[in-house]
Design goal:
With about 55 residues, the chain is mainly α. It has one domain. Helices cover about 50% and strands about 5% of the residues. The chain has two helices and two strands. A two-stranded antiparallel sheet has the order 1-2. A hairpin with a 3-residue loop joins strand 1 and strand 2.
């Protein structure tokens, strides 16, 4: 994960937001989240933001 952290340190805030949006959309289009649906309608995901604002 050090390489990923190094990359995010070099990106500005706008690029990080854009990258996050693209990655999440990609995961939805590839149906990565579909197995964890709740009542066949809701996607349940937990995101750990620990240390993001340090």
């Amino acid at each position: 994960m050090d390489t990923v952290n190094d990359l995010f340190e070099k990106l500005n805030g706008e690029n990080c937001e854009r990258l996050r949006t693209v990655l999440v959309r990609y995961l939805f289009t590839k149906r990565v989240f579909h197995k964890s649906r709740l009542q066949n309608n809701y996607f349940t995901k937990t995101i750990d933001g620990t240390g993001v604002l340090d």
